[in-house]
Amino acid sequence: MRGKASSRAWLALTPEPERDLPAAIAILRAGGPVSDEVVGCERARAEALVLRGSERRYLAWLAEAAWLARDGATSADPAVSRAAGLVGEVVSNQAGLLLGLPGGGRRREAARRILEKGAR
Fold it and tell me: How many domains does the chain have?
């Protein structure tokens, strides 16, 4: 029964990223400001991930966001650099929160290291 509980423990991490990352990810993908429609697509992706995804897919989404932020961190566009900073903060926070989740073992530790590296 313990394995079952820990397999859903990642859902405790989702509110901040689900709220804050879609708009920032959309900006980073586009390399600048985007329409509400584009942000809506990223929000739908985040929502689907939380409702029907897995911890592995969630952590991959965070890692992708971290790498987008790393690429956008030196952008001359203020919207992109702000988005990169926000994503870096959220991903770094999530990496730290992973330490408090039950279970996960080496797989989760490896994901946490990837998130920390990508957030820098």
Answer: 1
pLDDT, tens only, 69-116:
999 999 999 999 999 999 999 999 999 898 888 877 788 888 888 888
Distance in angstroms (rounded) separating the CA atoms of residues 31 and 69: 11
The 3-class secondary structure across the chain, one letter per residue, is CHHHHHHCHHHHHCHHHHHHHHHHHHHHHHCCCCCHHHHHHHHHHHHHHHHHCCHHHHHHHHHHHHHHHHHHCCCCCHHHHHHHHHHHHHHHHHHHHHCCCCCCHHHHHHHHHHHHHHHC
On whether the CB atoms of residues 13 and 98 are closer than 8 A, the answer is yes
CA–CA distance, 32 with 52 (Å, rounded to integer)? 29
Which structural domain, as residue segments, surrounds residue 69? 8-119
